[in-house]
Specification:
Heat Shock Protein 90; two-stranded antiparallel sheet; alpha+beta; globular
Length: about 250
């Protein structure tokens, strides 16, 4: 596909995505607000009942769980809307000089429940300099990659699943290589992984925004993101971010 056609395709998708996100965001905002009020009022009512033995046991056990799961679902929809908005309008955000190691560790911590006692994550750092970035956005990239790797490892049912983070400095770039021994991606799908809404996952497991959003984030930081993969062997994601280039806020790494 020529770059012109690809750019036009991305522009159309961006416009449509932005409109969809806007239409979803408005009702979603008041639904979340109303739900949180409802949750708070339920707690007040429950705490005001002195003899809780009169309440059915399943109410006491199930309702708090239902409320928690519902809020989690709403927040996941909100996160999806934010991803769609970012895909359409990838702003720069507030940037600061940070050690990529701290961002990686943050992403690993945030995904602990998904990989704990199932997959080992190793870190091999070989860098000295910081980069200037929006930490929350770069963390989002790593989270997306980790979750994709976890899914790929679970899919192939590896006995010893492994994700490895490596860093190195090369030609004024900080390179981050994330590899896994998951199911891998076939050649045909590999050429489409950065296309918005393309996914190899089953229905209900993902809608194909993670990698396209991640690439948009890396591009907005003047970096590059590539994927190498072999079916039934594993996948490597190579991210390159500039170390010494002055950013718009005038900060420099040196």
């Amino acid at each position: 596909m020529s770059s012109k056609i690809q750019n036009e395709k991305m522009a159309v998708i961006g416009t449509l995505s932005s409109g969809i996100a806007h239409e979803i965001n408005n009702p979603l905002s008041f639904v979340i607000s109303n739900f949180r009020s409802l949750h708070k009022y339920f707690d007040i009512i429950l705490n005001s009942i002195e003899d809780k033995s009169k309440l059915p046991a399943d109410v006491l056990m199930d309702v708090p769980s239902i409320l928690g799961e519902t809020e989690e679902g709403l927040l996941r929809v909100k996160k999806l809307v934010e991803d769609i908005n970012y895909l359409a309008h990838p702003g720069t955000g507030e940037r600061s000089a940070v050690d990529i190691k701290d961002i990686i560790n943050n992403a690993i911590r945030l995904t602990t429940n998904a990989h704990k006692n199932i997959i080992s994550i190793k870190e091999e750092y070989d860098h000295k300099n910081k980069i200037i970035c929006t930490p929350s956005k770069i963390s989002q990239v790593f989270i997306n990659i980790i979750l994709n790797s976890i899914h790929a490892i679970k899919e192939i049912q590896r006995e010893h699943g492994e994700i490895i983070f490596k860093t190195r400095e090369h030609e004024n770039n900080l390179e981050i290589i994330i590899s896994d021994n998951g199911t891998g991606i076939n050649k045909e799908s590999l050429s489409k992984v950065f296309e918005p809404f393309f996914t190899t996952k089953k229905a209900g497991e993902g809608i194909g925004l993670g990698l396209s959003t991640s690439q948009s984030i890396i591009n907005s930081h003047r970096g590059t993101m590539e994927i190498e993969s072999q079916a039934n062997v594993g996948t490597r994601v190579i991210i390159k971010l500039p170390m010494s280039e002055r950013q718009e806020n005038g900060l420099s790494l040196f």
